[in-house]
Design goal:
Blueprint lengths: L13 H4 L6 H11 L6 H6 L18 H7 L1 H13 L9 H11 L5 H27 L5 H17 L8 H10 L10
InterPro entries: RVT-Znf
Protein name: Zf-RVT domain-containing protein
Pfam family, one: zf-RVT
Length: 187
């Protein structure tokens, strides 16, 4: 095994994607995104699969990974609302900078760090699912429904055994996300 096994260098985003609280299908989709592996329309045109590059969220721009996450007006609206649920009020950054910001500001396993990691992965997952539903099933959800699905997934994961502390910041996050306050720890 050692003879054929290639050792790859660690990536900065490893702990952002693969962490104890992660939701596997969200983590996998996030991993594909960070590896640039999603087949967006710009890639499909280059492969000769389609002739249309326009974004499936009907903004008129070409569909690329950077556009989908989060420069498209539809996806940026979803992401801004998710950031607000995380008590983060800031402008949206270019995709690589969004990931870098999250790596720097959510390095550990504290409650608010885990919540941010889950929120980012869930947002990317639900945007990708919505994109595919629009492409293949002709089903369209409003941005509020995607935010609600992100909220449900994060709340569902953190409701059972969260490590929130008794402080205003964690209390506000629990209220925003609908996480029960019963298990909040003293700090």
């Amino acid at each position: 095994w050692q003879g054929i096994h290639t050792v790859s260098s660690a990536v900065a985003w490893h702990s952002l994607v693969w962490h104890p609280k992660g939701i596997p299908k969200h983590a996998f989709c996030f991993w594909l995104t960070l590896r640039g592996a999603h087949r967006t329309r710009d890639k499909l045109v280059a492969m000769g699969v389609t002739h249309h590059t326009s974004c499936l969220f009907n903004c008129g721009e070409p569909e690329t990974l950077d556009h989908l996450f989060f420069h498209c007006p539809f996806s940026s609206r979803v992401w801004l609302e998710v950031l607000a649920l995380c008590n983060l009020v800031r402008p949206i950054l270019p995709s690589a900078d969004e990931v870098d910001w999250m790596i720097i500001h959510s390095p550990g396993t504290m409650f608010h760090h885990s919540l941010r990691k889950l929120a980012m992965a869930a947002t990317i997952f639900h945007l990708w699912i919505e994109r595919n539903n629009r492409c293949f099933s002709n089903r369209f959800l409003p941005h509020r429904e995607l935010v609600q699905r992100v909220r449900q997934d994060v709340e569902g994961k953190l409701a059972a055994g969260n490590n929130a502390q008794r402080c205003d910041h964690h209390h506000n996050l629990c209220v925003n996300w609908g996480i029960p306050l019963l298990d909040i720890q003293e700090y």
